[in-house]
């Protein structure tokens, strides 16, 4: 695997774009039709398209972010991670609360009176609660989505519910940062492997005690209060951190893991088999992870340009849900699922384009900023390093109440 990883000569940008698009597709059904996407039934209620996409994001993020943690100092690593996630999120939250929210409130009530000072779930409480991904004030803003659900316009009362997973992404960044600060990524990578196996053992224990091998995970949920990030479900901490660290293990042991076409095809068949016979989380997750890495390295070079300079996947992920909600409020679900999805994706792509070029890309220009370098110019140090090393920074990945709101992104269980 190590021999195939040369700079950005891979298809991971394309895969992230496909995964983000899959999340938009998956949300068409719960928002517009109060149902799950087709994979939920095909897999025997084990997974759906949205859940697989989120797991895929965590695998690819773990693969790329671990490389960043191994290469950079802890301060620079933390700065890069914050720049990649937070500016885009903050602007999304502001747009949602200060633009989309009042427009929909006006659409529903004919006035914005009552929107701005509707406590405790008003727009300013929402902004404060979402700024750290803690979702401290809840998902709705001034009852806009609840009113939409009551009137039968849509079927989910969570404003931009897809943001639920970002706290778990940030938590995984912190875990990798701890490994990096302790030297484990460079000198003791087996520590990461042991942590991954520990999480995997917990998943096996859940499967062992399940009433059926083909169905949703049903272990008791335990809620933990994580500093800054707020309440988090032990279920998602285990399953999503496992996916993230599994991707990290692919990175750390890349010189020992073969990239074999037979194994790639076999991994796809294993995923399909778990849909039919069960054990998707404990057997399908590792197979799906290998399949993604294999595709990222084996897809033809003609698609390697996707996401190399412009990564729209994060914007699609964080804006897709709210775009679909706005369309639902105006009756788009009556168009039928294919047209509703098509229009949603087109509008989301346009917003993601603006988010990348106006916010995310500009924030990433600050990657090499230092308070002790008054003569610094955005991007200059990075270009020098790339010219010297012949590589580009492979860290754009990522995304992406403690639980996701009902019917959001990952269905019922992860």
TrEMBL record:
Q: Where are the transmembrane segments?
A: 50-67, 88-108, 168-185, 192-210, 236-253, 260-277, 283-300, 312-333, 339-359
Q: Where is the composition biased (Basic and acidic residues)?
A: 384-395
Segments for region (Disordered): 370-414
The record, for Pfam families, names:
Acyl_transf_3
Q: What is its EC number?
A: 2.3.-.-
Single GO MF descriptor: acyltransferase activity
Protein known as: Acyltransferase family protein
Q: What is the lineage of its organism?
A: Bacteria, Bacillati, Actinomycetota, Actinomycetes, Kitasatosporales
Can you tell me which residues the record assigns to a coiled coil? none
Entry keywords, A to Z = Acyltransferase, Membrane, Transferase, Transmembrane, Transmembrane helix
Q: What class of enzyme is it?
A: transferase
Say which species the protein is native to.
Streptacidiphilus alkalitolerans
What residues does the Acyltransferase domain cover?
13-356
């Amino acid at each position: 695997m190590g021999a195939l990883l040369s700079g950005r000569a891979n298809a991971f940008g394309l895969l992230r774009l496909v995964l983000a698009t899959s999340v938009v597709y998956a949300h068409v059904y719960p928002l517009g039709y109060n149902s799950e996407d087709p994979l939920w039934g095909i897999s025997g209620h084990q997974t759906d398209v949205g859940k697989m996409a989120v797991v895929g994001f965590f695998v690819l993020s773990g693969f790329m972010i671990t490389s960043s943690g191994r290469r950079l100092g802890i301060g620079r690593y933390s700065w890069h991670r914050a720049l990649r996630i937070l500016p885009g999120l903050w602007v999304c939250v502001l747009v949602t609360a200060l633009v989309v929210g009042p427009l929909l409130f006006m659409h529903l009530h004919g006035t914005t009176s009552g929107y701005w000072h509707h406590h405790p779930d008003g727009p300013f409480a929402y902004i404060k609660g979402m700024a750290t991904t803690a979702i401290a004030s809840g998902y709705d803003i001034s009852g806009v989505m609840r009113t939409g659900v009551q009137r039968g316009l849509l079927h989910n009362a969570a404003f931009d519910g897809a943001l639920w997973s970002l706290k778990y992404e940030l938590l995984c960044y912190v875990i990798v940062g701890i490994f990096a600060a302790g030297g484990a990524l460079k000198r003791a990578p087996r520590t990461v492997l042991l942590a991954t196996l520990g999480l995997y053992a917990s998943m096996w224990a859940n499967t062992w005690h399940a009433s059926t091998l083909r169905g949703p995970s049903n272990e008791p949920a335990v809620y933990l209060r994580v500093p800054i990030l707020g309440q988090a479900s032990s279920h998602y901490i285990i399953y999503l951190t496992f996916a993230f660290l599994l991707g990290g293990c692919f990175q750390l042991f890349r010189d020992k893991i073969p990239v074999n076409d037979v194994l790639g095809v076999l991994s796809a068949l294993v995923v399909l088999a778990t849909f039919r016979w069960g054990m998707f989380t404990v057997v399908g997750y590792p197979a799906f992870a290998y399949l993604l890495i294999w595709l990222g390295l084996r897809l033809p070079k003609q698609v390697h340009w996707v996401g190399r300079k412009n990564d729209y996947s994060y914007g699609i992920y964080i804006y897709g849900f709210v775009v679909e909600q706005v369309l639902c409020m105006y009756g788009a679900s009556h168009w039928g699922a294919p047209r509703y999805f098509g229009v949603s994706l087109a509008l989301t792509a346009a917003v993601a384009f603006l988010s990348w070029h106006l916010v995310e890309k500009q924030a990433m220009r600050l990657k090499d900023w230092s308070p002790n370098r008054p003569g610094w110019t955005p991007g200059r140090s990075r270009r020098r390093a790339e010219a010297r090393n012949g590589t580009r920074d492979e860290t754009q990945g990522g995304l992406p109440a403690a639980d996701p709101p009902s019917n959001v992104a990952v269905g019922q269980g992860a």
